[in-house]
TrEMBL record:
Name the UniProt record assigns to this protein: Nucleoside diphosphate kinase
Record-linked PROSITE patterns: NDPK (PS00469), NDPK_LIKE (PS51374)
GO cellular component: cytoplasm
Organism: Thermanaerothrix daxensis
GO molecular function, one term: metal ion binding
Binding site for ATP: K9, F57, R85, T91, R102, N112
Cofactor requirement: Mg(2+)
GO biological process, one term: CTP biosynthetic process
Entry's family note: Belongs to the NDK family.
Known EC number: 2.7.4.6
CDD domains: NDPk_I (cd04413)
């Protein structure tokens, strides 16, 4: 079982796509275990995107993520990290596969709607950065056996 951090970025919030994005993750079978709606401050933005510091798009990226509220969530499921990134599509919307969120709703890499952790290590770091342990609510879902059952 894996957990992954997902952000619905400011452009998606402004465009009224919160529901659409949650719908796709829920429908996939992933389970929501934490969520908050917040305005990202400079410090959180810089820590979250520290790996990109020094890249040409870094300053714009920090301005983008702090420009308007975001929806931060933790989703859980078997292979959740890869599954969420697959549902989101490639970083550049013009390279994202049809049927993915970034393909279906975005055009520019600098306005690509979502963030999702890219490995178990970054998922653990990012979840700890965005959520206190007591803000995570693992729960038993009646359909778990139908989604996660092995045989
Ligand atoms: P992700 O994991 O798919 O979100 O992609 P990365 O970790 O490589 O980059 C983080 C975020 O930085 C992306 O989601 C984009 O919003 C932004 N970004 C990445 N590459 C570029 C770029 O070449 N130009 C601009 N403007 N933004 C970029
Ligand atoms: Mg990334």
């Amino acid at each position: 079982m894996e957990r992954t951090l997902v952000l619905i970025k400011p452009d998606a919030v402004q465009r009224g796509l919160i529901g659409e994005i949650i719908l796709r993750l829920e429908r996939r079978g992933l389970k929501l275990i934490a969520a908050k709606f917040l305005q990202v401050n400079q410090e959180l933005a810089e820590t979250h995107y520290a790996v990109h510091k020094g890249k040409p798009f870094y300053e714009g990226l920090v301005r983008y993520i702090t420009s308007s509220p975001v929806m931060a969530m933790v989703w859980e499921g078997p292979n959740a990290i890869a599954a969420v990134r697959q549902t989101m599509g490639a970083t550049r919307p013009t390279e994202a596969a049809p049927g993915t969120i970034r393909h279906d709703f975005a055009l520019e890499v600098g306005r690509n709607l979502t963030h999702a952790s890219d490995s178990p290590e970054t998922a653990a770091q990012e979840i700890a950065l965005w959520f206190k342990p007591e803000e995570l609510y693992p729960w038993d879902r009646a359909t778990d056996a139908w989604i996660m059952g092995q045989n």
